[in-house]
Amino acid sequence: MAFQVNSNPTATVTFGDDGLVLDSYLVNVDTDTEYPNRISGTVQLKAADGVDLTTKKEDVISKAIVKAKAMVNADKGAE
To answer: What pTM does this model have?
Structure first.
């Protein structure tokens, strides 16, 4: 299943004692249009997912797609 991202990830941050601290990245992910049952949604990435404020956009998108695939596969296994 191929996934795509149609917009830039959105970062939510807070001001900590040492400056900005990443809360999460939100990434809108959906399947390519050729799939009859299109899946779309927002993936949230946090520090535990291996991202921080210095993570490149391409890496954030890549990690979001990997997480989306894992979420879809977990849902299939629950059926």
So the answer is: 0.82
